[in-house]
């Protein structure tokens, strides 16, 4: 006896699954994009992370936004390299490292609580180490 979601022929392709919670993915994609854009102007608020989250969520909830992000002259190459290879450009790595170093300096100067400084700067060091272990994009990408 066959179930309705399983085809009778085992070699036949499975029916296209309906995207569950497509509205939630759509909402997350646009909210992340908005937060990333705000991050361009607000020091300390990351931009790249939110743009990557937006692309990831858009791939599940908004083909139109996902296509726009991949085709964007500024964000598209970085998103494409990340999705295809898990790669980050050398320039991106240096920019992230520089930004984290500046934020660490500001924290050392402004934050009076030692454990907050230690935890935050330690977290930035872990992220920086992880980032530099990511591969570089292929030469033609």
TrEMBL record:
A GO cellular component term found in this entry reads: plasma membrane
Listed A to Z, the keywords are:
Cell inner membrane, Cell membrane, Membrane, Transmembrane, Transmembrane helix
> Pfam families given for it?
DUF454 (PF04304)
Q: Where is it localised?
A: Cell inner membrane
* Superkingdom of the organism of origin: Bacteria
Q: How does it sit in the membrane?
A: Multi-pass membrane protein
Looking at the keywords, is Coiled coil present? Answer: no
Spans traversing the lipid bilayer: 23-56, 94-115
Q: What is this protein called?
A: Inner membrane protein
Q: What is the lineage of its organism?
A: Bacteria, Pseudomonadati, Pseudomonadota, Gammaproteobacteria, Lysobacterales
């Amino acid at each position: 006896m066959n179930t309705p979601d399983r085809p009778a022929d085992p070699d036949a392709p499975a029916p296209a699954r309906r995207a569950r919670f497509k509205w939630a993915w759509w909402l997350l994609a646009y909210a992340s994009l908005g937060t990333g854009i705000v991050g361009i102007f607000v020091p300390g608020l990351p931009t790249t992370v939110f743009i990557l989250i937006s692309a990831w969520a858009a791939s599940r909830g908004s083909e139109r936004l996902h296509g726009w992000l991949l085709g964007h002259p500024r964000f598209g190459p970085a998103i494409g390299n990340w999705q295809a290879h898990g790669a980050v450009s050398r320039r991106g790595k240096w920019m992230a490292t520089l930004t984290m170093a500046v934020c660490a300096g500001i924290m050392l100067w402004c934050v009076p609580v030692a454990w907050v400084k230690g935890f935050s700067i330690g977290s930035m060091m872990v992220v920086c180490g992880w980032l530099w272990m990511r591969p570089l994009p292929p030469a033609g990408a």
